[in-house]
Amino acid sequence: MRSSNQAVFAARVATVGHGPTTGSDLTGTQALDEARDYDIAQGAAGISARLDRLPATRAIWQLVMLLSLGLFFELYDLMFSGYIAPGLVRSGILTATTHGLFGTSGIASFIAALFAGLFVGTAACGFLADRFGRRAMFTYSLLWYTVANVIMAFQDTAFGLNMWRFIAGVGLGLEIVTIGTYISELVPKHIRGRASACSQAVGFCAVPLVAFLSYLLVPHKPFGIDGWRWVVLTGVVGAGFVWWIRLRLPESPRWLAQKGRIDEADAVMTRLEARVQTEYGRALPVPSMPEPVRSKAQFRDLLRAPYRRRTLMLIIFHVFQTMGYYGFANWIPTLLIKQGITVTTSLMYASIIAIAAPLGPLLGLLIADRFERKTVIICMAAVNVVCGIAFSQARETVLLVSLGVCLVLAGNIISYSYHAYQAELFPTSIRARAVGFVYSWSRISAVFSAFLIAACLRLFGVNGVFVFISGAMLIVILAIATLGPRTRDVALEDISR
Description:
0% strand
């Protein structure tokens, strides 16, 4: 493959001074640049074709599982906000309600600080993964938010707590973008949906863990230290695994090829192909004839067809799905307390509901590559609307917990689906930046929706909260149904072309 590309490259360079190649005479430098771009495009197409034809053996799933471990620690950190909230109120650092729409001493400010950091991490830092590689950013963003959480765990004021939650959120935002991009580029096209579902299933196992630990620790003070601090520090153990995970992960061969590092991409693919073939037990399928891959997409291309329509769709989706998802997930214990349940009992119920978190993506392993991602998102958003309204009217324990489980299942099936979906819609050269840009709208939405949820809860009670959430999910359904393209079992390059 490489020798063929070199021959093409040489032929292209040989045309310098022999007439037009793109409709006008080219200088030697222009022709050389054009030939180099063509060489890179051909090499990237070959790498993509070699990767997409691989069988899904143990070697492929090991890469998915290693990245999923990183997602586990990320989701632990992302989701503990709601579960430690009663402990923050109990310790006197924060208040349950917010004084004024944008008060800084309530639970809403703590949640908003996280999402403000996530916004900066996704919107302003997503380009780092496109520039320096998926592997480096996967490593350093995880270390970033781990250190920030250690410092946050020892804060005693609302200002200090919120500031370090914001700083941790920056690292989390970059990590979220990187992992989704990384997985989509490392696996063959025929298992992208299942790979995303698997990573989310492993990652969401952190939710019942953080819920159960909060139930055990938040109401108490082990060794004289507030229980919420123990919950935060428990997640820090992720730092001990990050270097171990990093050593076993290759750089994305698609990213390397797009950067013109064809030899490095070829080396990664050669090692992976050797492992897969050993496990497969016979010769690998022959790669399909590749077409050149667009190698120099720019961020401004998001405003041009076909990406303009996709960008608009994902912006609308993220603004409103965040209101629906985190409007419930970050407020579960608080909503249960408002339904007349005590702090300790609400944490117990919340931990039971949280057990459903990894079950949604596990169900996704059965349907992920059988149905279109957009269809799954629409159906689960409809389930969210129905169960949300029913939850607001429920008072019996069994019904509350059952509806809570349904809401978590639907929300997390949506989560794995859109993480796979949004990474499929943009070219490799700008994938992390594009995903970061559209995803950042969910972060800024979450900042304001935290205060809006708090206001709805104060003014209209639990009923008002779920009317608000249901309206948001109806807009999600409309946006995905009318603007979302189909992506199932289509090569990433074909979707982007």
